[in-house]
UniProtKB/TrEMBL annotation:
Keywords: Cytoplasm. Pfam families: PDCD10_N. This is Programmed cell death protein 10 dimerisation domain-containing protein. Its main location: cytoplasm. One of its GO terms (cellular component) is cytoplasm.
Length: 55
């Protein structure tokens, strides 16, 4: 049975954690950008979401 399953050790132990780590960094930067944009231009987030929904 083990011969039929692909070895996902590298995927599970290296690739996926690296992607998750980079994703956290990217999402953190995105959160900061949205917070700063909303501070500078109140309501900009709602306008952006409305544009996305309408298109």
């Amino acid at each position: 049975v083990d011969d039929e399953l692909p070895d996902t050790t590298m995927l599970d132990s290296v690739v996926l954690p690296a992607i998750a780590s980079e994703a956290r960094v990217g999402l953190s930067a995105l959160q900061r950008a949205f917070t700063e944009a909303e501070r500078i231009i109140p309501g900009v987030t709602m306008e952006l979401i409305n544009e996305i929904v309408d298109s």
